Amino acid sequence: MKIDQYLAEKEDTSIAVIGDICLDLYYFTGSEPAEISVETGLPTYSVSRTKQELGAAGNVAVNCRRLNIKAVDMYGIIGDDPYGRIILDLLNEEGVSSRGIVKQKENWQTHVYHKVYQRNKELPRYDIGNMNIPSEISIDELIGTLEKNLSSYQCIIINEQVLSGLHSPYMQKRLNEVIMRSEDKIIWFSDCRKLHDIYSRTIHKLNESEGLSIALSHGYANAGDVDSLALWLSKHWKRPVILTRGENGALVCDGDTVRTVNGIHFISDIDIVGAGDAFLAAMAAASLRGASLYEGAYIGNLSAAVSCTKLYETGHPSCDEVLSLSYDPDFRYSPVLAKDIRKARYENDIEIIDIPRMTGYPAMAIFDHDGTISTLRQGWEEVMRTVMVQCITGGVYDQLDMKMLSRIYDEVDSVIEKTTGIQTIVQMQYLRNLVAKSGYVKDKDILTPQQYKTIYNEALLSHIEKKSSLVRKGLLSVEDVTMKGAVSFLRHLYEKGTKLYLASGTDQEDVIAEARLLGYDTLFEGRIKGSVGNVASDPKKEVIDQILTESGLIEGATEKGVSCIVFGDGPVEMREARKHHIPAVGVLSDEKQRYGKNLDKRERLILGGANLLISDFSDADNLIRICGWQ
Questions:
Q1: How far is residue 630's CA from residue 615's CA, in Å, rounded to a whole number?
Q2: Are residues 328 and 341 part of one domain?
Q3: Mean local confidence (pLDDT), 466-483
Q4: What is the mean pLDDT of residues 594-619?
């Protein structure tokens, strides 16, 4: 896909955006009252900073400019008030023309959303403009300007987000007349909360919930199948449909075909405000430069993901940011299957997501270590959980009420869930962010990620040493601290000539020492890689890249006849395999029992891109048969 070309600046690109123009006003305050008001006796709070952002249609217009659309015209209504003037100033700063904006003096207040954040927690919002009534005079003036400039536009975007906004019945009638006269010359997109049936002669971008609501109102009865929903909507309007699905990406339907755009996996905190606007703007921008509808939606999905990473703002992705993400995105695969185990299909006890096509034993096999082969580190999550909560709360752990403590534990559990399998040093970066955000530790006392890692490692190594000592004394066997059948499976692959690689997010010297203790280090012949403390150097990614380099491969191991397979119990290795078209086997390991399934791992392994799911290695013969190695 030529993403760089679809976002490159072109002189002749032009878009009009028609819709509800809103102003988002952000206020950031502390949690402690500054003083008690003399007049009211109520506490007052100091606002440390403020920010002004264009929302709704204004945000779409700004995003179009940021994504290299040369000429962007804004159409809508503002009030005769200071907020309206702020909107005009912000549009001017962004290079968006306001020639289509009408100022209505009566029955209209500029739409304003006052958003107050207290220590990064959003408080109740105060809105202005919820009782607006657009006059027919204003609508006629707006449509008149649009018709006058219609021939200059390649694309027009309709935005409808406010119940008491621009899109009155009269506006709907007038705008539909323009659409009918120009639909063969201009690309029309609509992004509406309620009016997709009204603006039916457009390309429709809407979310899954909105689409289902519309379909159900027309008697649609297949609520559980999102692909069928996209098909139904496209046939209903006789127009293409882009059905956005939040973290699960989007579906694109143009006629009888539904194509999936995979969602993006996030580890860090996200803010979804403005993500839909970013999606729409990027899709429209790419369409003007020759992208297909699917390609436009793919780029729109990347743009929305970039927007989500921008906290406490509507989010305006740049072309460089979208391109940067496109080089190495972490996708979420098969979200419906991942969420609903009833859709699982099995051969014996192995869950089949997508059978890898291989002939003979693989030339190379990459194994994660902890939870895949070894269980020495079983319980690391609880160790990390305890360390993180203690670091976040500082010296006030015993003083916190249970509600606040529960919220901290939830945040920590979320970080551990999202970061399972990545380097410990990266996990500690997220811990540092949580410590800073919580405010319980003074800024001068916040440690570096490496210092937090040292604290965690000391606690974990103490935990591990209890088992390691028993292994050294012969009181525990190798089978007691490894997944069932894992070591014998390694030996079997080794004897068949498969080169074995071990890749772990644990420190490299510790991985080597544990593999040596358990007696299978020689099977890897030095091909053991762990973390060396470099955030930019992920060992699992490096091992896969190393294999591709050694084999002279670029796009993927299986595409040029050199076979490779990945085994792991975490989503990181699944995603890295999927990126390079390498089959991946997810291990649903119950590390405490060392056999059987831990279904808590199922969802994240499928979302990571696993082809097969096994509980352990006890049914190796069946696995070998399914993979086609016999």
A1: 21
A2: no
A3: 94
A4: 95
